[in-house]
C-alpha cells in the first residue's frame, strides 16, 4: 500500500455551480497571467468580465469576503 494522498474533491459535498466554475476559471486565468495578490487578481477578474456578487466590481475586500464565504 502506498502512503496517504490528497484527493482534491474529498471534502466537497456537491458539484460546483456555474458561478463557482466561472470564478474558478477566472482565478486560474489571473494566476496564469502572473496575478498572485488580491489587487492584481481583482483587476484580471474585472478585465475578463467575471461577475462579482451583486454586480459590483471586484475589489480585494470583496474578493477576500467571497473566498471566505465559499470556503476557499
Helix count equals 3
User: Tally of extended strands?
Assistant: 0
Q: Would you tell me the structural class of the helices and strands?
A: mainly alpha
Q: Please give the radius of gyration in angstroms.
A: 14 Å
N-to-C SSE series?
A: HHH
Walk me through the structure.
With 72 residues, the chain is mainly α. The chain has helices at 18-32, 38-47, 60-70. It has a domain at 37-72. α1 (18-32) packs across α2 and α2 crosses α3 (60-70).
Can you give keywords for this protein?
mainly alpha, 72 residues, 0% strand
Topology readout:
Layout: H1 18-32, H2 38-47, H3 60-70
Q: What's this model, at a glance?
A:
The protein is mostly helical and about 70 residues long. The protein has a domain at about 35-70. The chain has helices at about 20-30, 40-45, 60-70.
Amino acid at each position: 500500500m502506498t502512503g496517504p494522498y490528497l484527493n482534491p474533491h474529498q471534502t466537497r459535498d456537491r458539484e460546483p455551480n456555474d458561478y463557482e466554475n466561472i470564478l474558478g476559471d477566472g482565478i486560474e486565468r489571473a494566476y496564469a497571467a502572473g496575478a498572485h495578490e488580491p489587487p492584481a487578481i481583482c483587476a484580471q477578474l474585472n478585465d475578463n468580465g467575471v461577475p462579482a456578487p451583486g454586480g459590483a466590481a471586484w475589489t480585494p475586500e470583496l474578493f477576500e469576503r467571497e473566498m471566505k464565504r465559499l470556503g476557499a
